[in-house]
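In the design runs reported in the main text, the only information available to the sequence generator was the tokenized backbone. The following block is the verbatim input for one such run; it is reproduced so that readers can re-run the procedure and compare outputs position by position.
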């Protein structure tokens, strides 16, 4: 096999070395346009996981790395003159130049032909002459651009400027330091990589960089200014450049990673923000996987397909974590007012890869100090601390999220709703929410949706609330009121979600006459008189909800239903007083809120669910979402339930664990009001992490409660908690310990004999 490698970074070099080691007969040529000693940046951090893969695949490289690694365990967070240290993290780093030297030596010893100071031939030429072409030519990959029509790259530039620098002393921990200057917030990321050297990255938002004049001075002058700003962290020493320039980070994503016999590797295929230290790690792991797939598969085509199948989920997960970390630093100013320890905890858990439970294992004393500062009683996980909304005190921070069941008859909830909601109330959550309860027959999503537009429906709901209050004391039950708008008159979810009914359709109304998707029914634009009628329907439903005994009412202004349709510029094309600017788009939802609030008991809280983004170009922006939250708060909303999307069919959500939480976090801090976070929050560890970091006040979980109605009780048992934040119903107490799953008393071996 003849292999061409474009690019002499760690990924390309390591791929060449591995392929040659696995089969010395391979003819491998690597092109690197720079000289052997040319490198950008300073230190490289590798994880124990990556090192384990290197040790298994090439002990020679592993041993060489081991001799040069600097290791440390601590992270220091310096904020407003206070330093908090968290231990147990385990880092290993070495100089980038030394890493390249080790890989150069290994390639030469194996017989790889490395051609420095040489531009690689055109990818078409290489593809014709070689059996495999590995494009490891970096974030600005020429190969990727050559075949852009196949790879379909998406390159996203972000909001911060940063610069890689060096210092001539070793930090004794990974250091994050925040500087609040007259121009704005700046941050330093620093870590040691040799006995006498550290990497220092200075980062700030673009507008801060410009306000500080760093765009209008020479590189040396800007570096000197940064050294003065962070003089305490640098011990008064200078910063050093290595062809360093200010740049913006770009996230690279490709729809495909290979084209015929050409394959992308490392930054050419994907990038992950430096704040989680994954660029070199991903490239090295790519090389390991590619080499393994070439050994395991019968031909190049199947090997490249297997390589992409194996690596894509791992890379996507890392990119999600990196994006969360990147955005946390972009929006750092939101968190500056937090108590110092909570700020440090928030920073440490920003990517969601380090969690409350994980951090407790690493540094129990630090985590307990954060909990004490937050107000957790001894032995109480954050999720089991109480929270007050108006006259309602929730005993814990867990909410059973609204979930449409599509099991009502003529809008009347039946035995299914009693068992469904009753079981989840017995399961220990602080608040159980109904599905979206419709305010009229025409406002239903499907024929199976529940309502509150008749007295019979209200009586049926009273049966549910009475059960919850009598049998699950301490659990509150809330009702979510809504109107389907243009997304109504559709089939039950399992018969075809959002698909029109084959017969028996009812007419639809909406902010504007726009169908939800091709093939959907065309709604009529609501007239002023119809708006008044619908407002009265909400008011009547709220009055019935109060009489039915609900503890909390939520107004559904999300997911493209009627009120959401007024809020989004993609679904509101009106030219009257109810369309146009955000102020005008808010007018009708606020009119409905005010009317409902007027009849809803003053001591009972009201929340509003919104879609904080439409996940579509031209839709609701993050700034809009904050403005919407502020408007509802000004009218008396007690909390905002922050969801996203489902407004337009052409949305492109960025799914991932806790993926909607950053929107809740921003609203909480910018609008200054309580929020409920929702969206792929699946573990009690996530709930504890989000609550303790101050990113949300309550966490709403849907699918976990479908899987386990007693999710909250089990979360308490698994954490060894038995306090006032959750109570097992008396008939269930015997089940409060996990049952044994098999024999555990078998004798253990006492001797190990050599054979």
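Verbatim output:
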């Amino acid at each position: 096999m003849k292999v061409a490698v474009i690019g002499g970074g760690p990924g390309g070099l390591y791929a060449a070395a591995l392929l040659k080691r696995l089969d010395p007969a391979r003819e491998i040529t690597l092109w690197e346009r720079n000289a052997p000693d040319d490198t950008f940046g300073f230190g490289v951090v590798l994880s124990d996981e990556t090192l384990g893969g290197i040790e298994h695949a090439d002990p020679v490289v592993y041993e060489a790395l081991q001799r040069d690694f600097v290791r440390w365990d601590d992270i220091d967070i310096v904020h407003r003159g206070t330093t908090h240290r968290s231990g147990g993290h385990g880092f290993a780093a070495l100089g980038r130049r030394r890493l390249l030297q080790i890989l150069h030596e290994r390639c030469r010893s194996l017989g790889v032909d490395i051609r420095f100071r040489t531009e690689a031939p055109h990818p078409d030429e290489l593809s014709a002459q070689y059996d495999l072409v590995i494009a490891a030519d970096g974030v600005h990959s020429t190969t990727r651009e050559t075949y852009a029509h196949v790879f379909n790259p998406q390159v996203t530039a972000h909001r911060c400027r940063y610069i890689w620098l060096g210092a001539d002393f070793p930090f004794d921990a990974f250091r994050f330091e925040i500087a609040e200057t007259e121009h704005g917030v700046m941050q330093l990321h620093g870590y040691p990589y040799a006995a006498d050297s550290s990497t220092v990255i200075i980062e700030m938002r673009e507008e801060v960089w410009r306000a500080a004049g760093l765009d209008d001075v020479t590189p040396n002058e800007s570096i000197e200014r940064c050294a003065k700003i962070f003089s305490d962290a640098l011990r008064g020493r200078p910063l050093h450049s290595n062809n360093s320039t200010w740049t913006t980070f770009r996230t690279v994503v490709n729809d495909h990673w290979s084209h015929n016999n050409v394959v992308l590797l490392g930054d050419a295929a994907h990038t992950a923000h430096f704040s989680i230290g994954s660029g070199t790690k991903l490239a090295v792991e790519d090389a390991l996987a590619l080499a393994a797939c070439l050994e395991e598969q019968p031909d190049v085509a199947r090997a490249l397909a297997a390589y992409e199948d194996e690596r894509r989920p791992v890379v996507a997960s890392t990119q999600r974590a990196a994006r969360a970390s990147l955005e946390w630093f972009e929006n750092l100013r939101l968190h500056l007012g937090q108590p110092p320890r909570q700020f440090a905890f928030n920073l440490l858990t920003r990517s969601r890869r380090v969690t409350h439970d994980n951090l407790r294992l690493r540094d129990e004393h630090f985590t307990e100090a954060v909990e004490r500062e937050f107000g957790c009683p001894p032995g109480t996980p954050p999720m089991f601390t109480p929270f007050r909304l108006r006259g309602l005190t929730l005993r814990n921070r867990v909410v059973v999220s609204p979930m449409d069941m599509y099991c009502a008859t003529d809008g009347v909830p039946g035995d299914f709703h009693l068992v469904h909601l009753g079981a989840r109330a017995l399961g220990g959550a602080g608040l159980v929410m109904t599905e979206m309860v419709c305010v009229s027959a025409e406002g239903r999503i499907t024929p199976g949706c529940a309502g509150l537009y008749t007295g019979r429906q209200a009586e049926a709901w009273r049966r549910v609330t009475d059960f919850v209050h009598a049998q699950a004391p301490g659990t509150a039950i809330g009702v979510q009121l809504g109107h389907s708008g243009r997304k109504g008159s559709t089939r039950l979810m399992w018969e075809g979600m959002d698909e029109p009914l084959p017969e028996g359709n009812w007419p639809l109304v909406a902010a504007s006459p726009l169908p939800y998707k091709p093939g959907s029914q065309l709604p009529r634009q609501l007239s002023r008189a119809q708006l008044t009628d619908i407002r009265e329907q909400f008011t009547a439903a709220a009055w019935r909800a109060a009489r039915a005994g609900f503890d909390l009412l939520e107004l559904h202004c999300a997911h493209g239903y009627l009120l959401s349709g007024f809020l989004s510029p993609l679904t509101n094309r009106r030219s009257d007083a109810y369309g146009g600017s955000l102020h005008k788009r808010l007018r009708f939802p606020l009119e409905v809120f005010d009317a409902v609030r007027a009849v809803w008991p003053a001591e009972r809280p009201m929340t509003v669910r919104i879609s904080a983004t439409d996940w579509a170009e031209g839709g609701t922006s993050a700034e809009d979402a904050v403005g919407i939250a502020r408007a509802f708060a000004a009218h008396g909303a007690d909390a905002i339930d922050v969801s996203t999307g489902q407004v337009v069919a052409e949305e492109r959500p960025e799914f991932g664990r806790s993926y909607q939480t950053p929107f809740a976090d921003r609203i909480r801090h910018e609008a200054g009001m309580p929020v409920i976070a929702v969206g792929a929050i699946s573990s009690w560890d996530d709930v504890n992490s989000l609550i303790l970091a101050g990113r949300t006040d309550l966490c709403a979980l849907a699918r976990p409660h479908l899987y386990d109605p007693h999710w909250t009780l089990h979360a308490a048992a698994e954490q060894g908690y038995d306090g006032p934040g959750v109570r097992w119903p008396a008939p269930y107490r015997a089940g409060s310990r996990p049952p044994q799953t098999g024999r555990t008393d078998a004798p253990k071996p006492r001797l190990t004999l050599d054979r």
